[in-house]
Design goal:
Number of domains: 1
Strand content: under 5%
Largest sheet: none
Helix content: over 70%
Structural class: mainly alpha
C-alpha cells in the first residue's frame, strides 16, 4: 500500500528539519 510509505518519508523530513534546528541552536549556544 503506497499510503504507508508517505508517513515514513514525512517522518524523515521532520527528523531532518529537527536535526538542522538542533545544529543551529548548538552553533548559537557554543
Amino acid at each position: 500500500y503506497h499510503e504507508s510509505m508517505r508517513p515514513l518519508r514525512r517522518i524523515q523530513t521532520v527528523a531532518e528539519f529537527i536535526t538542522k534546528a538542533v545544529e543551529r541552536e548548538r552553533a548559537l549556544f557554543v
